[in-house]
Specification:
This protein has about 400 residues and is mostly helical. The chain has helices at about 5-20, 25-40, 45-60, 65-105, 110-135, 140-155, 160-175, 195-220, 220-235, 245-250, 260-270, 280-310, 315-320, 325-350, 355-370, 375-390.
């Protein structure tokens, strides 16, 4: 029988190794987790892993990080979940904080390779939109919901519009799909978190979501403003890490904390590192307030993921077999497609593509990613080199 310390040490070691090598986005991360935790280490069986993935796909937030947190919790309790998160996340956090420091110190926003990274963002988000639209908006009704979200967020560009579009899409999904039967109902499976802990975490999640904007309005603290912006963004992202881009852009750029050029340069750099895309927050926080800001922003944007995993694990068996909840999620996921398409146009395309050469490079990078299936780090290197040589 292993001691708790040895279990925690092993969780940290293996999750750190995954954090250093897991390129390719959340779908790839889930494949890496399956190979390591299910097949190699046998920490969790196939059924339990499938249940956990289903839960984290249902929740807002970074799905792959939430799966890693959940596996850590099942293996080593709440401390195991924290160590699993730290190992998987901190390598890319450290890299992006260093990148932000170099960018801020030397003022490289106008360098050719930075322009190339901005074009990488165009290709990556275009590929994400296309892939998500096929899965999340396959029928006419959900395509219409996506169109509504696209038009609304383009014409009224604010975080409140995005929140409203998500809420209205959930209502539309409920009205359209509430009577649709759930195929293949899942059997119950126990999770090692009590309902009392779950209720407490959910209460804290919603309490912070409601209280932080009020606190931000009555104080002038930059730390409170950072906490509010990044916590809210981490709480409202359905559909994966790419969707955090428009929420963060609306929070960060209009506030004058950085330029769109700095914002998109960091987003391009985030594609080059392993681990979750939510670590983009580390770059933003470091640009705003140094390395302390980078660590604080990372904590703020991932805190909702922790609270939601701990809060919903005890109730997941009932939720996933509830047709009305599934119907709401179908509408919400469709709205994500429209919100991401809106972000692809502005700020990404409008800030990155100004010439025929830049559009041609974006087309080449998109083709490499979508048709030829090159890994993301190759796209990033190619974009940076192309920016140096041709832009």
């Amino acid at each position: 029988m292993k001691s708790k310390l040895s279990v925690w040490t092993e969780i940290l070691f293996i999750s750190t190794r995954l954090g250093l090598t897991s390129f390719g986005g959340p779908v790839a991360h889930l494949a890496y987790f399956h190979e390591e935790y299910v097949q190699r280490k046998k920490w969790i069986d196939e059924k339990s892993y499938a249940d956990l993935v289903a839960l984290c796909q249902f929740l807002p937030g970074p799905a792959s990080s939430q799966v890693g947190i959940g596996i850590g919790i099942q293996r080593g309790g709440i401390i195991g979940g924290i160590l699993s998160f730290l190992g998987f996340t901190m390598p890319s956090v450290i890299f992006l904080i260093i990148f932000a420091s170099v960018l801020d110190h030397f003022g490289l926003e106008d360098a050719g390779w930075i322009s190339g990274l901005k074009i990488v963002a165009v290709a990556v988000v275009a590929q994400a939109v296309l892939g998500m639209s096929q899965k999340l908006a396959p029928d006419l009704e959900r395509k219409t919901i996506a169109l509504f979200a696209l038009v609304a967020t383009l014409l009224w560009q604010s975080a409140y519009t995005q929140i409203g579009a998500i809420l209205l899409a959930g209502v539309a999904g409920f009205l359209l799909y509430r009577n649709q039967p759930i195929l293949g109902k899942q059997s119950a499976h126990p999770f090692p978190v009590s309902k009392r802990v779950g209720v407490s975490c959910l209460a804290l999640f919603f309490g912070l979501l409601l209280f932080l904007p009020v606190l931000n309005n009555v104080t002038s603290s930059k730390w409170i403003a950072l906490m509010d912006s990044f916590y809210r963004s981490g709480s409202l992202v359905f559909g994966g890490g790419h969707v955090v881009l428009p929420l963060l852009e609306q929070e960060i750029v209009p506030a004058g904390w950085m330029s769109e050029e700095q914002f998109l340069a960091g987003y391009g750099a985030a594609q080059a590192v392993p681990g979750p895309l939510f670590t983009f927050a580390a770059y933003l926080g470091a640009i705003i307030n140094g390395w302390q800001g980078g660590l604080f922003a990372t904590f703020a944007i991932f805190l909702p993921a922790f609270l939601l995993v701990l809060g919903t694990l005890p109730f997941w068996n009932a939720l996933r077999n509830h047709p009305k909840m599934t119907a709401c999620l179908m509408g919400i996921n469709a709205s994500v497609v429209g919100i991401l398409l809106s972000a692809l146009y502005h700020p990404i395309f409008t800030s990155s593509i100004h010439t025929a050469a830049e559009f041609a490079m974006a087309a080449i990078l998109f083709s490499m990613l979508y048709f030829w299936k090159f890994p993301p780090w190759v796209i990033v290197v190619t974009g940076a080199l192309g920016g140096v040589l041709f832009l």
